[in-house]
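--- STAGE predict ---
source: upstream dedup step, 1 unique chain passed
mode: sequence only
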Amino acid sequence: MNIAIVGTGYVGLVSGTCFAEMGSHVTCVDVDEQKIQSLLEGKVPIYEPGLDEMVQRNHREGRLQFSTDLSACLDDVEIVFSAVGTPPDEDGSADLKYVLEVARTFGRNIKKYTVLVTKSTVPVGTAQKVKAAIQEELDKRGEQIPFDVASNPEFLKEGAAIKDFMSPDRVVVGVESERAKELMTKLYRPLQLNNFRVLFTDIPSAEMIKYAANSMLATRISFMNDIANLCELVGADVNMVRKGIGADTRIGSKFLYPGCGYGGSCFPKDVKALIKTAEKIGYDMQVLRAVESVNARQKSVLYRKLAAYYDGEENLRGKTIALWGLAFKAETDDMREATSLVTIDLLKKAGCRVRVFDPVAMDECRRRIGDEVEYAIDMYDAVDDADALLLLTEWKMFRLPAWNVIHKSMKTPLVVDGRNIYDPGDMAELGFTYLSIGR
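--- STAGE serialize ---
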């Protein structure tokens, strides 16, 4: 099949590359000429394990092309995916200007039946706006070209996106015609060989599924962070609590790990957008407002523990604080809504000297905040003469460091673990003061 994907961000590039890997001929389109030129040269603008090699191979073999002009490839494609950004507007609602611009370009240029599939995360009702924008452009042209719109939300986890795409637990497709359903079935047929089913729904349900899924996962995280904070106050161990409730088959064990708050491109944005969608029709999402509030508070938990250890914020001035991890999670360089940004801001306001290290997100941090922090050469350089080490991201390389070297290097052997990856007993034996979440 011949398809086009508009937007070469995380969703668009991963999806396009994986469709090409399955045998489709894919043109990835983006208005950013520099990004397209880099992709043509084999340079991938995002970090995702395995993506570089897959992009280069499929481009070399002719299945994956890159362009800045959607209109130039519309004659040849059967399906166009819209995977452009939907950044939060000032009020927290999703900004649809890029989505609607793709729809208008589609309407101005199609010459035969084509399906426009929204892959971006968009509020319920967006498909109708997209459909209206396309029809308006066709009316201007005086044309009656048939088309369909569809919704195909993505459920890719950063750091495991290729595996998630090639071996998904479900593919959700919202359609409103049999013709569109048949075309989408044909596209996804290679994945059906692995005995999974495509879940076809109406379009509003497909649009809602993505928001509801991410909001449920965010709710579990905030719930466990609230429980962890309570565990500390009553003397319980949140790890034991997590195992105890996770063994209940009605609950399950996933997304029950407490920490220093969720971030990234999906959960914060989608929770806000769903709250705003409900607000616009007069409904108050009280649970999700609490989820958002708990998460905002949790992002400062490591700073608050550090300040308490030093008997107040005023005593942090002049202290050297090392941070391990900048990305919002391991296996990505994504720092959108990352806890590290909140922590750095609080530490700098308190007058701390901040030294950071992350195996892949250092350039992204420089792009975001410049020289507000010191960039360490490696994880051991970061802790040299430090008054505390804060772990924010659970990269594998941080799991079993040379603690004897670190103990000698630090001014004060204090470790504040935002991901509970170390054992309190082991840390005590090694001579560290160890603070974690909910234990």
